[in-house]
Amino acid sequence: MIGEEFADLLAAAQGGSEAAFSRLWRNGNPALLRYLRVIAPGAEEDIAAETWVCVVRGLSSFTGEEQAWRAWLFTTARRRAIDLARHRSRRPEAALDEFTAAQLPSSEDSAEAAMENLSTAAAIALVAELPRLQAEVILLRVVAGLDTESVARMLCKSPGAVRVAAHRGLRRLAQLTAEAGVTL
Fold first, then answer.
1. How far apart are CA 128 and CA 123, in angstroms?
2. Residues 71-80: pLDDT tens digits?
3. What is the pLDDT of residues 129-176, one digit of tens each?
4. Which of 125, 132, 133, 161 is within CB 3.0–4.6 Å of 157 for a Cys-Cys bond?
5. What is each CA distance from 151 to 72, 84, 113, in whole angstroms?
6. How far apart are the C-alpha atoms of 116 and 123, rounded to whole Å?
7. Do the beta carbons of residue 135 and residue 176 sit within 8 Å?
8. Could you tell me the CA-to-CA distances from 3 to 24, 31, 77 in Å, in that order?
9. DSSP secondary-structure letter at 144?
């Protein structure tokens, strides 16, 4: 969360400041990717890119505080994910032939990056095992930092349904971590 300086940062980004927009992106994109990894596995990077294009287009007309900004960002991403799912259902894709290891891109830092992301990937994998509504509610509440009312509006659910889904999801996550032998 950005905090008290959000209004000034938003105004600067709306005024064309690349540094201000970059800060908004750096603040929001990691959580956005984690959210998309669960609701649209395998397409998170593409959907995030489309989401940011939509954000750039609508940035000048956006008004609101940081909570509204995050809700707008994640609502936009959710709509892009729904659009992609609809598109894929109408035009299924066929798998390509397998690549050899020599054909895959690699870098010197790939092992280090994998180690850094291991715990995040494990947590996202556990959340992905939850029913979709529970996973989405937990990600929007915890990762995106949205309040119950914002999540309820996004998902077209009542605040009570969101609280119940969060409670059930967290209880199921506790069971999954216990079964996996994870200690906190």
1. 9
2. 999 999 999 9
3. 999 999 999 999 988 889 999 999 999 999 999 999 999 999 998 888
4. 161
5. 11, 21, 31
6. 13
7. no
8. 12, 16, 22
9. S
